[in-house]
Amino acid sequence: MKGGHVHFLGHATLLIEVNGVTLLTDPISRVLRGNAQFKTFLSGAKKRPPLDIVLISHSHRDHFDPKALRDIEASFFILPERCFRLFPKKRNALLVEMRPWEVIEIKGLKIRSLPALHLSWLHPYPLLTPSLSYLIEFDNLGLYFAGDTGFCRRLFKGIGQSFKIDIAFLPVGPDDLLFKWYHLGAKDAIRAYKLLGAKVFIPIHWGVVKGTSGDSLKTVRKLLGFSLPYLRLLNVGDKVSLGELLNREGAFAPPDLNFLKQV
């Protein structure tokens, strides 16, 4: 591995830099609750150098934000099938629609589209669209970005048995019965991580968007209460090297719970 970093910008937005390639996941701009780091990145998106790849997991507005997508320049936008017609028209980039279990190679990165257990649509359009998760492979490493998903033992076990996963970015959500079918609560997130066979589990989908993320704070606190050696909680705005994430020595210092009160 030549080196790489993960920058957690909040909610499900990750800026991944590896081997000279920049990749952004699920960018949003309509921040109702958040921090300056996240807003600064999006507000200055038009002035930033173009990204190489943007991954879109599904068409809910906290993952598929037309305003953010209009402002961000990138060479490739990868999105689930049937999302093309919802995508902003002002675009010179290559749009790639994917179905589950497909693979594409871009600039040395192999990107696999995998299933996710989640229903999605872009309000107000009456169009159901699929939800995807993605596996990013390079230099014998695998980064799994789940987007937003509920728990399915068969799904996670199948993915874990089929692919090598080093770091799993899993969405955490409320444990309430109404939401748990399509979101991962604390115990289900741990079960999913173990079935995937990943080395490191990083919670996402919390800390920025008011509402579901507010409920997700309870799940984050519950996860921290388990004192899991493989859990790495990134505060919104944190940037960390892949080497540090994969090196268990010193990489899992107890997090400061005080910042959760600021979110």
Question: What is the strand and helix layout of this fold?
Answer:
Layout: E1 4-10, E2 13-18, E3 21-25, H1 36-43, E4 51-55, H2 66-71, E5 74-80, E6 94-98, E7 102-106, E8 109-115, E9 120-121, E10 128-129, E11 132-138, E12 141-145, H3 153-162, E13 167-171, H4 177-180, H5 186-196, E14 200-204, H6 212-225, E15 239-241, H7 242-246
Parallel strand pairs: 3-4, 4-5, 5-6, 12-13, 13-14
Antiparallel strand pairs: 1-2, 1-15, 2-3, 7-8, 8-11, 9-10, 11-12
Helix pairs in contact: 3-5
Give a brief description:
The chain has 7 helices and 15 strands. With about 260 residues, the protein is α/β, with parallel strands linked by helices.
What does this structure look like?
By secondary structure, this protein is an alpha/beta fold. Helices cover 22% and strands 29% of the residues. It contains seven helices and 15 strands. The chain has a seven-stranded mixed beta sheet. Strands 7-8-11-12-13-14 form a six-stranded mixed beta sheet, covered by helices on one side. It starts with a strand and ends in a 17-residue tail after the last helix.
